[in-house]
Task: inverse folding
């Protein structure tokens, strides 16, 4: 266990180092003088005085050796200080924090919705393996994982916001605004959760202790809930946290479509506007969280299921 | 007394096949044999994919209109004899644009998939074969990269290098090889422990020969299943990036870009905004059906071998929906 922790923290720090170097290099990559590009992003004016560019170069210390610049930048970055957004002139931290909480809300809503439907579907399919119900559920899950959310989303808007007028088409000012993006986002995880539940459940149902429980006189539903569910939930939970980590910054398309002020949309608009500090801060946060959440999941997995040792991971 | 039979051929390379080659089924034979005995959805997937590929290959000859020709007097027209699927906001024929756009979507997804599969298989096999620090390096890279959402990686690369086909393909490859490497490593470890590999080693076969003659061919079926499953995922991601205006750039257009163009006209002409998405959906569905059909056969076989094996041993879940669920 200790080895696992040591190894994983080593991996984590190397990853963070690599990501930080790449994020730091964003303004330097490509052609052109970084100071000129920063000014252009700030004032959105192609005609710049050379004196202005030179002044900014000196002000930001861009004439120093690049290593010195990197370590200075890193020193601030580890305290969470990525500077000010070029476009809104607010500190990156003040933009990122609310966006992250919005993304967490949306991701949890979508994934819980997916889970609520996936568990019964997966269990039903597992208990009727090879039957008509199983085939139908498998086909539904296959369709769900193949449905692009940027296709489902606009169609949902068309039907429920435009034609029926039941729900708002975009924005984030109340509980009603969560429904459509969460539904659109939940479809693909729903398919995967169903498949994993079915696979895990059918494996568990074939185990001898299920037969033992049944022969002790336990009814099938009770066996299912007490023995089956408990033992088959581990892979589903792993997948859940995997998707959760991914959706914190990866729900870009849905957040853009539904105008949800989350991490994905923040990062997307920053990339489009070349708002370097926001890109750097956002990327560092999203990728760190993704690795961290998955590491914790692996750890929990071994705690919850002692049969699987992490040392040979 | 001289022996009547010819002496066995002496060769420096005893592991090479001697004697007449045995009949090995070609791809077509195994495909025909493969469809039989599988679920009908597998056959449906094969038929759908074949239809898609046929139409996309023949597009230059069968597309009814030039996809770029505008007819502003006939904007957002509904389906008609002239324009089977109507026209878009610039009066361009939707069917022709779907056909030409599909060529971009499918080609980019195919290229990235090929790079991911080949590099993943090689790295996974290498990790299993070499063990030690190579294994450690590859698998730790997998652990980290597998958590990165494709779209975020793409945004990172676009911030660094700008948009373009190179960026697009790189973005889908950086994290995309990891499921293949993980799958291949597991399979290779299983295969490396087999008697025939030991026999080949005793015969003095070089490592590369064992890799290409024994390990990779025996790992192909699950790898093929995963390739199909990942192909659908790639199609969806390519479309997502194009939808954001960060993938295929104008004047080129793919299904995702067509969806983006159609957004302002969803209410007036819903088909313009629904058809390209339906194309992505159906194409992704076809490969998902194929992939899971292949996977299912493999699993039922494994289940039998597990049942006869040691009881209580946890079965490794490689190539299952869990790996495939790592699709963001």
Result:
């Amino acid at each position: 266990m200790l080895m696992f922790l040591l190894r994983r923290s080593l991996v984590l720090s190397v990853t963070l180092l690599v990501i930080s170097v790449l994020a730091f290099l964003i303004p330097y990559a490509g052609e052109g003088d970084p100071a000129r590009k920063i000014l252009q992003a700030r004032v959105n004016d192609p005609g710049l005085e050379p004196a202005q560019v030179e002044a900014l170069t000196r002000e930001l210390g861009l004439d120093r050796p690049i290593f010195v610049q990197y370590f200075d930048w890193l020193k601030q970055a580890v305290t969470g200080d990525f500077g000010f957004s070029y476009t809104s002139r607010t500190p990156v931290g003040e933009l990122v924090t609310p966006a992250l909480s919005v993304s967490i809300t949306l991701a949890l809503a979508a994934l819980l919705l997916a889970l609520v439907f996936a568990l019964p579907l997966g269990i039903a399919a597992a208990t009727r393996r090879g039957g008509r119900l199983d085939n139908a559920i498998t086909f539904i899950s296959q369709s769900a994982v193949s449905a692009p959310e940027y296709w489902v989303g606009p169609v949902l808007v068309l039907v429920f916001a435009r034609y029926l007028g039941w729900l708002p088409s975009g924005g984030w000012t109340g509980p009603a605004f969560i429904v459509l993006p969460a539904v659109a986002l939940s479809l693909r995880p729903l398919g995967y959760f169903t498949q994993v539940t079915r696979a895990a459940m059918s494996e568990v149902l074939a185990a001898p202790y299920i037969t033992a429980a049944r022969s002790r006189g336990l009814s099938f539903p009770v066996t299912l809930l007490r023995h089956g569910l408990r033992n088959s939930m581990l892979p589903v939970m792993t997948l859940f946290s995997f998707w959760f980590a991914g959706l914190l910054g990866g729900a870009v398309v849905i957040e853009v479509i539904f105008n949800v002020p989350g991490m994905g949309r923040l990062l997307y608009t920053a990339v489009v506007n070349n708002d370097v500090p926001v890109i750097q801060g956002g990327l560092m946060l999203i990728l760190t969280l993704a690795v961290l959440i998955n590491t914790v999941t692996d750890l929990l997995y071994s705690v919850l299921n002692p049969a699987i040792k992490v040392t040979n991971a | 007394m001289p022996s009547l039979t010819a002496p066995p051929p002496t060769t420096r390379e005893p592991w090479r096949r001697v004697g007449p080659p045995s009949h090995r089924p070609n791809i077509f034979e195994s495909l025909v044999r493969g469809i039989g005995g599988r679920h009908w959805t597998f056959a449906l997937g094969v038929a759908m994919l074949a239809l898609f590929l046929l139409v996309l290959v023949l597009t230059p000859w069968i597309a009814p209109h030039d996809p770029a020709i505008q007819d502003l007097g006939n904007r957002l027209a509904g389906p008609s004899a002239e324009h089977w699927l109507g026209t878009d906001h610039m009066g361009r024929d939707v069917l022709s644009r779907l056909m030409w756009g599909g060529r971009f979507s499918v080609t980019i997804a195919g290229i990235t998939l090929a790079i991911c599969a080949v590099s993943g298989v090689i790295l996974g096999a290498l990790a299993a074969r070499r063990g030690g620090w190579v294994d450690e390096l590859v698998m730790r890279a997998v652990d980290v990269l597998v958590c990165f959402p494709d779209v975020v990686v793409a945004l990172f690369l676009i911030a660094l290098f700008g948009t373009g086909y190179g960026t697009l393909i790189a973005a889908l490859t950086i994290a995309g090889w990891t499921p293949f490497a993980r799958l291949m490593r597991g399979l290779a470890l299983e295969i490396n422990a087999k008697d025939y590999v030991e026999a080949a080693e005793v015969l003095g076969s070089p490592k590369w020969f064992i890799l290409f003659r024994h390990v990779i061919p025996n790992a192909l079926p699950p790898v093929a299943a995963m390739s199909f499953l990942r192909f659908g995922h790639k199609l969806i991601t390519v479309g997502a990036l194009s939808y954001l205006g960060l993938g295929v750039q104008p004047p080129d257009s793919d299904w995702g870009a067509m969806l983006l163009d159609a957004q302002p006209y969803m209410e007036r002409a819903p088909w313009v905004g629904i058809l390209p998405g339906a194309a992505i959906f159906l194409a992704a569905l076809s490969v998902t059906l194929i992939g899971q059909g292949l996977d299912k056969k493999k699993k039922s076989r494994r289940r039998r071998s597990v049942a006869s094996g040691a009881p209580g041993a946890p079965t490794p879940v490689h190539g299952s929906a869990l790996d495939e669920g790592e699709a963001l």
